[in-house]
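user: can you give me the structure for this one chain? tokens are fine.
assistant: on it. calling the predictor now.
[tool input]
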Amino acid sequence: MKKKVGITIEARMGSTRLPGKTLKPLLGKPMLERMIERLKRVELADLIVVATTDSPKDQPIVDLAKSFGIGYFQGSEDDVLDRVLQAAKKHNLDLIVETCADCPLIDPKILEMEISAFLENQVDYVGCHLVKTFPIGLDAKIFAAQTLEEVSHMTNEPADRENVSLYIYEHPEKYKLLNLEAQGRQRRPDLRLVVDHQEDFDLVEVIYRELYGPKPDFVYDDILDLFERRLELPKMNQTVKNIAVAGRNNDKK
């Protein structure tokens, strides 16, 4: 039986490092809308679900999801694991492709590679961060909704509840993990392509200005081509530390 694959986007307005970044205008449209545009190109996914909170300040996120005709769920601000789990249950997902709303450069090709790896192998989890070779912000974390249900009953540690799949990949004795590594020039773990700070957003804004017009479906290789032409760009957010490389301290997406 074919598995129902859903991309979940953890999104809220209350980021402490860059408040309101989820709907921050990026080339004239909210950053979350730009990310959804890219995720709609993931052909192996059946639907997209925005997992936001039940706080009134996050209602604009729900309104955006409705306007796009995609799924949404409103749940706990602090217990992100339960929020994503309940979103998966509401939409009857078998396979969760976990993403966060601060990744407007996320690459559909990388996500399809991860989903394929999960479907073609006997594993419980697929990611690209266990051995970090891709830039942060391009990939997703893949696992079964049933696995997350199991984890939900196994841990109440605050870090596990805030970082949805943390318990899975920190317990390789319980779960079979598969890490995908970048090859050739794509092997750039030094780059930051996520939006945690203003410096990150400034870089993303330049990338969109340069690439979106001629090629709205630009991918990671196009970004690398741009960086080769303009060597100063990767330095724009070089002073920002990769806070969430391993998935911890994710600012409660």
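assistant: here you go. Confidence is low (pLDDT under 50) at residues 244-249. Residues 5-183 form a domain with the Spore Coat Polysaccharide Biosynthesis Protein SpsA; Chain A fold (CATH 3.90.550.10).
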